[in-house]
Every structure is written in structure tokens, then in C-alpha cells.
């Protein structure tokens, strides 16, 4: 059986791979296993075999596709500009369509329904907050405020001036509301009026990465309606931003918050604050570096916050979080997480900046007590308020 979903690979995209192998050193799963089928080149060969009718979409094909972290480091390294992210999402959708299972139906509910059901997310956040206070929740999660704080539907800042529409998302709204609060504070200080339409929903990235393209498209339609009139859409979670920037209707309006804040620092709307030589280690999320090509702006924000910036594994491998990957492949995810934590520890910094919620959770899992992991804009907001070094409270 050939392709049956709406996202078969384009022949021109498959043919653009010249099998040069430059993707191999940057691929986390190939680096860990040395297995050609665990490389971008190997996965493209498997997809090509299905496209030509040589191989079926079976359990083995599903294993090859599912083992990919979708970090997109291969796209950065590829001289032929193979759109691997788009191809692998289509192949994942094919696996879901042709190999249905109970696990797949549960997964579909989780990433297409639960993540856009606000009462369910808020109830879950409150439950997790209570478990944290009882010492029963994962150390990967930062302390969730009780009651849960949401920026959804709010408006802040001057009545006139440029309007920045804040993308709220789902998990970030429920578990990482402090990042949204810091983003709002810094944007208002830069002269923006910040709006957060209540009608927006989950970005759909997890649904798309897991192969549920129809669910991702429903979320996209809702967000298009909610964000259609926005002047600029500011996103403070790198994974969400990378997905939203690909939207054909409003993707051109989407900016990562570090892009907006770095520009305001450069043109003098936000100050460069005096530091004391304290170190901050920067972890580059895959969907910021490879998905959006953003590298320097987080460093500008941290420098302006008064810190001496050091790189944690610059150009290194994915941290292993990768959405639901840490659940699907816990051993591989953990090994990558340990390697990333070791790279951070080697910098000598105890304050760590990461612009993606999933990466933050992974770093918290594997870094020892005494390390503080925060979004770059949270660190800048703390310095702007004169609060000094951030704590992990």
C-alpha cells in the first residue's frame, strides 16, 4: 500500500538528498547508535522505498520514523536544504494512518483534545501544584503557582503605541505562566501594549510531530481566527514559535520574544544593565537554533541583563526532551539529557538560560540541586526589576 494521507512527500524533496552524510555527525540518534537507519539519510531512504512501492508502511518502518527526535539539526547541516522536518511529519502521519492502535488513539486524544481543553489543563495544573507541595511531582517541573495564573484574555500596557499579541499556548499557560508574566513585563517596559486573545489555542506542534495532521490543522484554523488582526505575534516557547512560523496565513507575523527584546535593547527602548561578572550558561533549544535560526538574540538579552554569557554545548546535540519523545524513548532521551547536563555543568555556571519549556524540564531532570533554569526573558525581567540573581523558588 502506498501513501494514503494528505502529506505524501514531494518527489523533488526526496531527490534533493545527495546522501553526502553531512547530517550524520549532528544527528543525535545516529551519534548514539551508529545505525544508518537512525540517521536522516537512512530515514529518507526508508521513506523513498515506501514512496516507490518497494517497502510497506509496517511496524519496522514505524520504528525507523518514530525514533527521530525531529530536532531538525540535519536541516542546518544539509547543503541541499532538504526540508526534513516537513518530510518526517508526513511520514509520521502515514504511520499513524496505516498502523492504528489503542495507544495511538490515546495519544491522539492527548495531543489534539486535552491540550486545547482549558478547564482540563487548569485542573491538571492545580493537581500538579498540589503534588509538588507534597513532594510527589517530577523534579523536571518548576513550582506551579496556586491558584493557577493565566494571562489568557488579558491586556497590559499603554493605551496607545504598538500592539504585541502574546501567544499563550497550552502547557506553557498551565505550567510556565511565570514566563508569560516576565514577557508581558518586559514588552510593556519596551513600550508595547500587550494583548492575549482568549480565543487562541494550542499551537498544534505536538499534534503535527505525532502525525495527527488533521488535529493540528483544526488548532491552526482556530489560531488563524484569533490572530488574524495581530500586528505581531510574540511567542516565548521556541517549539511553539517554530511551528507557528510555518503557518501560511500568519506565520510572517510571528517573532520569538528574544527577537523582539533584543531589538528593543539595540535601539535603546530597553536598558543595558550593569553586571557583577556572574555567569549564565545558554542552552540553545533545537527549535530556536535549527527551526528558527535564532542564536544571537538570547545572548544579547542575557548580556543586557548584566551577565557574562557562556555557551552550554554550542552546536551540540538535542537535549532529548523533544515533545513526547521522553515518554516514547526514555532511555535515549535520558542519555541525551545526561550529556546536556554534563555540558552545562562544565561551564561553571549555576544559572542556565533556555528559551523552550520542554528543554527546561529536561535540564531540571538531570542537573543537580543548586542549578536554576529560566527563560532568558525571565532573567532580564528579574534584572530590570533590580532583583539580582534568580532563585528556584
What do these coordinates show?
This protein is an alpha/beta fold and 393 residues long. It folds into 3 domains: 11-100, Fumarate Reductase Iron-sulfur Protein, Chain B, domain 2 (Orthogonal Bundle); 116-262, no CATH class; 270-384, Rossmann fold (3-Layer(aba) Sandwich), CATH 3.40.50. It is 48% helix and 8% strand. It is built from 20 helices and 9 strands. It has helices at residues 11-15, 28-33, 40-51, 59-66, 73-77, 84-98, 102-113, 118-133, 171-175, 177-189, 205-209, 213-227, 238-244, 257-266, 286-292, 296-304, 325-328, 330-345, 357-366, 376-384; strands at 155-156, 163-166, 193-195, 233-235, 254-256, 279-283, 308-311, 351-354, 372-374. A 5-stranded mixed beta sheet has the order 1-3-2-4-5. Strand 4, helix 13 and strand 5 form a beta-alpha-beta unit. Helix 10 crosses helix 20 (376-384) and helix 14 crosses helix 16. The N and C termini lie far apart (54 Å).
